[in-house]
Design a protein that fits this description.
Order of helices and strands: HHEHEEHEE
Radius of gyration: 27 Å
Mean pLDDT: 86
Number of strands: 5
Low-confidence stretches: none
Structural class: alpha+beta
Strand order of the largest sheet: 2-3-5
Number of helices: 4
Amino acid sequence: MQFPLRNVFQTWSLKELLRGLLVTGGYFFRRKFTIQYPEEKTPKSPRFRGLHALRRYSNGEERCIACKLCEAVCPALAITIESEERRDGTRRTTRYDIDLFKCIYCGFCEEACPVDSIVLTGIDEYHFETGESGVVS
């Protein structure tokens, strides 16, 4: 009994195997795009959201007015703010903590801030020695 070559290809899925090998072989001869990190850096998008920063006025005073909108809008509950009232009746922060292990870098805090106090920078390289050091004050 003879089997046609077509049945062998279909039975053993050699057709699909050869199709996969052709795709792989095509990539073998293309230009490689491996980047040798950390010696080489990839370009970052202008919309990249990295490490948080609290801005100050030119006289050195913090911009944050302790409205706590960023704390309320944070979906990961990563922001904690403590504030007290000053003699002149304004509120200012006494403690502003961002837990970077909880933060999902969504940028909602930056959008919610009425005085543009908090910004997400382009810094993407930072590390922590212990779990407590992941909280930025």
